[in-house]
Specification:
The structure is a homodimer. By secondary structure, chain A is an alpha+beta fold. The first copy, chain A, has 2 domains: 145 residues, Fructose-1,6-Bisphosphatase, subunit A, domain 1 (Fructose-1,6-Bisphosphatase, Chain A, domain 1), CATH 3.30.540.10; 110 residues, D-Maltodextrin-Binding Protein, domain 2. Helices cover 34% and strands 28% of the residues of chain A. Chain A contains 8 helices and 15 strands. In chain A, the strands form 3 sheets. Chain A has an 8-stranded mixed beta sheet with strand order 4-3-5-6-7-8-9-10, with helices on both faces. In chain A, strand 3 and strand 4 form a beta hairpin. In chain A, helix 1 packs antiparallel against helix 2 and helix 5 packs parallel to helix 6. The first copy, chain A, is globular. The interface between A and B is medium-sized, with 33 and 33 residues.
């Protein structure tokens, strides 16, 4: 990380805060309001997009245009904008739109900034609770209802002691679901429906595993930065980089990650 | 409700507040702390009981002993205590213990008071978010991060427009799961894992249906009171009273309830 001096790091952290504040203001204006309308992105699958989603990304892009006009942007709603600095901001204005339209406080604003090596710093913000999880440049911390707390993933738990989360049980192909159940059947407890909040809980030391598939880069880059800074590990299901999206496993410790990875071998599962 | 004069109603509402405050203090002392230990109630199934669970119920029982010694109590942790007033307090100190040990802010403290006709007044409290949903005696309201808001279940949504919640997909017998899927397949969106918070979201007008089975009286009495006061309806799967526990369907409107009930006919499903 020596490529980024303390002044640059400070600028990135401050900018991420400003983006999270801007997105928080927009999303809270829409969350739990009457007549929240959701359109379907594709006819085949229910994938709501709300005015909040678009408004929050626009607010973040406006902030970046003012503060860091040379950085590139990849956003869920408005796609890619090239840059010249070598840094890219990866934005998901509302991760967990289904949760958002249901009123559950487990969706989040995801903000990551990275370079060719992957995400360097990330924020997972839950505006309704008023909880902001951050990690990168060697630090991970959260501000929430009980005040400021360091984030530290927990260690020393094997799979049979582990709490596992995934977004919802219907996700993925049949082979992917079989692989997931391969892990789930051996875990102490499996829970659903927490959206990106599950990654925050892992970074904070409350749960041990998050396993998902069908991810986009903007779904996973902020969680990668926060979890890594908290001592956890995030890879794809083969142990490679996960920041491009697709299948991801987040584990609280390298030992647990090593125990679970073979269970996610799709060739093994389908054989 | 003319049986209960305004002074008695006031006493019941104030007592419920005091119980919720007492339980909130205890549960927040334990929530998200290191080394939270969960025992298994039965060897067969994972059902954690924590010090928080027991401590919160003890705190509520102590409050009742001081304020309303003649009322009966039915609590999840310490069972039934008889009374002479004809009123019973039904307490679940932590509904959603799995969520509690996972750090998710969707568990709640459930408090109901009722007589032979069923629950009269109820509270669903989420201590970490600082959100308290209340309903009964013709009023339903919530205090939370955005301040005080009335609770009103939404109307005019048919099943194909409905958002459906249930605790987790593994619950129930195979026939019960088939009946649930019978509804789920026709709903707009199905979500999992919100514990008692789903009932609060229904009362607040954000979702339309909650369907569960295997309930105890203390799981459902507070939701019944809050949802009824907000204009919704809660029954068992045959349209009868649900306050005894077992299978429950909560619907935002009588019309939606009437549309869904036939789909939960277990004789139909298993035929």
């Amino acid at each position: 990380m020596s490529r980024y001096d303390s002044r640059e790091r400070h600028s990135l952290v401050e900018t991420a805060e400003a983006l999270a504040d801007a997105a928080r203001a927009v999303t809270l204006r829409y969350f739990r309001t009457e007549g929240l309308e959701a359109e379907s992105k594709t006819a085949a699958e229910y994938d709501p997009v709300t005015a909040a989603d678009r408004g929050a990304e626009q607010a973040m892009r406006a902030e970046l245009a003012r503060r860091r006009p040379d950085d590139a942007i990849l956003g869920e709603e408005f796609g890619a904008r090239p840059g010249t600095s070598g840094l890219t901001w990866v934005l998901d204005p509302i991760d967990g739109t289904r949760g958002f339209i249901s009123g559950t406080p487990t969706w989040g604003v995801l903000i990551a900034v990275g370079d060719a090596t992957g995400p360097l710093y990330g924020v997972i913000d839950q505006p309704y609770i008023g909880e902001r999880f951050r990690g990168g440049f060697g630090k991970a911390w959260c501000d929430g209802p009980p005040g400021r707390r360091p984030l530290r993933a927990r260690t020393g738990r094997s799979l049979d002691q582990a709490i596992l989360f995934t977004t919802f049980p219907e996700i993925g192909t049949e082979a992917e679901r079989r692989a997931f159940r391969n892990v789930s059947a051996r875990a102490r407890l499996t829970r659903y429906g927490m959206d990106c909040y599950a990654y925050a809980l892992l970074a904070a030391g409350h749960i041990d595993l998050v396993i998902e598939c069908g991810l986009n880069p903007y779904d996973i880059q902020a969680p990668i930065a926060v979890i890594r800074a908290a001592g956890g590990i995030v890879t794809d299901w083969q142990g490679g980089p996960a920041h491009g999206g697709g299948r991801a496993i987040a584990a609280a410790s390298p030992e647990l990650h090593a125990e679970v990875l073979p269970l996610l071998d799709l060739s093994e599962v389908s054989a």
